[in-house]
Amino acid sequence: MTLAELEWRVVGEERHEGPLTMGLEEIAAETAASGGPATVRVYTWPDTLSLGYGQDPDTIDWAFCEREGIGVTRRPTGGGAIYHDSYADLSYGIVAPAGAVPGNLMECYELFCEPILDAFERMGVDASFVDGKREAVHQPACYLRELHPAHDIVGPDGRKLAGNAQYRQKDAVIQHGSLSVSLEPDRHCGCFTGNPDPADFRERVGAIDEYVDIDRESVVATLRETLSEWVDADEGAWTDDELSRARERAQSKYATDEWVRRDP
User: Fold this and answer.
1) What's the rounded Cα separation, in Å, for the pair 218 and 208?
2) Interatomic CA distance for residues 153 and 103, integer angstroms
């Protein structure tokens, strides 16, 4: 089995609350593992902080998030927390049966990032995997952690443009990632205790609109196009059953304090 032999659907751009966003991803994995279509998706979040799987809740400024109307959930993937701004951040997901992708993690990252790098190229952004590890600026924040050449994409000046993460569940492989369309360093840094400096954030993180003159709608369309063409995906949508199961999963898992505020 190869990616080309699968039935693919493309979903989005869509926006749901953080817990449902993660619930839909988990249900998409179950669909792909049971012989249903594989999925590529483009999505945004309402202003949301997504914690890494092993995140210490004490690293989060919960009062700031509540005051600023920033929702909080936890991802099944590792890394630090990411502030997903409703305008400045754009996310994608790829969900496929495990038997159709390389078993080697690094090879799988390289394969799944092909359409992401293609999207940057079509936008006119000179982007590539970072060429070596770089020290962390603020470990709890994903965009300020140590950069890694396996999954961190940087712009022409070496600042981080996109992060990518993978996990395997129920015989499926899930990769999701976040692309910076614009920067919101004050809100991003404000989500954390330890007072990370917004100026340090700007030195480490770049954004698409800093490198090229392009509107957000074109960024969304380009990313969706490259993902769809990469696997020759058909226009798709969630089934009623998937939506129902995803809502239940969001309520029973991703929205609970036991999941979001749990100790690592």
Assistant:
1) 11
2) 22
